[in-house]
Amino acid sequence: MRVGFFVTCLVDSMRPRIGFAAIRLLEAAGCEVIVPEQQTCCGQPGYNSGDRKSAKAMALKFLAEFEAFDYVVLPSGSCAGMIRVHYPDLCKDDPALLARCIAVGARTFELTDFLANIAKLKKMPGTFQGALTYHDSCSGLRELDVYKQPRALLASMPGVAINEMVESTTCCGFGGTFSVKYGELSTRMADNKCQHIAATHAGTIVGGDLGCLLNIEGRLRRNGDSTTRVMHIAEVLAGTEK
Amino acid sequence: MKNNSINFKRQVTIKLADVKLQSALSRLQSRFVEGRAAVISEISDFEETRTAAAAIRDRVLNDLEHWLMHFEQQATARGAIVHWAETGADVNRIVAEIAVQHGVRTAAKSKSMVSEECGLNDALELAGVTVMETDLGEYILQLAHEAPSHIVAPVVHKNKEEISDLFAEKHQLPRKTGIAELCREAREILRPAFLNADMGISGANFLVAETGSALIVTNEGNGRLVTTLPRVHVAITGIEKVVPTLEDVTTLLRLLPRSATGQSITNYVSVLTGNKNKDDHDGPEHFHIILLDNGRSSLVGSEMQEMLRCIRCGACMNHCPVYQNIGGHAYGWVYPGPMGSILTPLLGGLEKSPDLPNASTLCGACAVVCPVKIPLPDLLRKLREKQMERGMKSRRETFMLKAWAWLALHPPVYALATKFGVRAMSLLGGKNKLLHTLPGASGWTDGRDFPAPEGLTFREIYQRRNRQ
Fold it and tell me: Which biological process annotations from GO are given for this protein (chain B) (predicted)?
């Protein structure tokens, strides 16, 4: 199957290694991975800030670039949710466009959802030894029902022990521009998350959305925790590049 | 009640630093979140019930005038008098007029958030009527001269010690410390208030159109005393609370207490229909029902209509990570949490509450638990869109959004901008790969480091590899 890979703007600029890890996983699952070169942002920052017009322009750009693939996969629940759940809202006044959004949305998946439920990847290319704890990012969890998929993939790795934190499904406080506009509040929410992470003694916090991971890492480091590892699930499943 | 939501940000700072408040809020999780989770499992068709409840509410809202007329007709036929109030001030005027008409000197009141919208207690005091709140939480707040911080648990922001101190000071009695003792003391003071009141004032959780009844759900029994003992009963509620039939109410009642307090059913469910007839043993001689609009009708038929489905259970705030960290007072008006962040701007003016629609991560926890399936995050986002359309966003934010959109729609420039941007940030990150400050993003870096980018963009590396 031909998979169009949407890197996401955050992975593109902040953590390219997550993008390459995701590609290795998709290839391990037997996919032909294509990365359209003109891709940029899914439009979520504008959409969630009330800028509907520019978000719609980005939705149209996405459609043009990704509509032809069998599947579209993203290493982010919130960007995948943007496409699946919110593009139809942006295009609801144009029936033809709406139909296209719904069609491509149905073929668009968050990475772990795709690996577990569509590609049915059984053997992870990476290795990981030790305990980790998993943070459920909001959009993936509540818009796409991503909860069991990452845990099932992680559990299939022989060396992995999952120490569940309390309130793993509570928001970490990132929320895109919220994290800057309401910094104090966002920091407190991140702090609560850090305490729950520390209580697991896992040593590694894993998640499926880079925004949340940067938020959590930023608070951990400011608190003086330089040892807890913060990893995207693609990095854990695919292992580090040789 | 005065709308103070313009000060949201300042209040957040204060509330985050309030040690007592933080300790009180930490109990929300076990009491309400876990309580709800345990009790909804009793209903095997919980999701279907939510869908049915939303449909019941929509059926009413799509034809609100019809159902209100039907309600008025039925209520009037059974001896109640229905009043229509456009604003909170109108409610206050109507209640004061009823008080004069019946020579009312004292009123006993059970919990009503709509009366908080109106500032009824202050208005009645000015009109010479002594009002006593009889819901324990509201009574405590009346003593403390504070506003409720939660629509179901109004005094959730206070701990037991504060209440012990307050009672000792206001009641001039030896300080009690046990919950049972404190309750007994309040009960002894409240009992004569019930018996002596000329007027009882209540809210109404639902108005039943087919029977013209006002229905209230309570736990303390004060609601039943207030609505049956005094010779005059005034029920005040919003026009959106009407429900076609008692059968419909039973569906909503399967959800309301479970969502609100984690109870299968409240201790009391009172269906108040008409005034006392000559064959009745009890009940008020005069039953007035005041229906407040206060901006609600302007939402009917608008893209915000779904907000009127709300049955005031408070589950959205109980599950909101923002509410859980700052409590209800920070929101600045009657209704806090996600539902309040939508209602306050809608009823009080978006320009007076610029922060409320934005102070949410749109995490969606509220929408998942809402018993009537209000898409709260979507409504918050729609308010943000209105702010954008009306030019209410800061110039800086508008510029940033437009600049980002322009870049994203021009991939070659985007590639160049990100290429140099991430290099610079990577260098600034140093060997620890952390930025301690970031121009224009102090909101982030005041409390967190910003992990530095790797240094090359994905697209650069990808193109390089493809060339090889």
Answer: lactate metabolic process
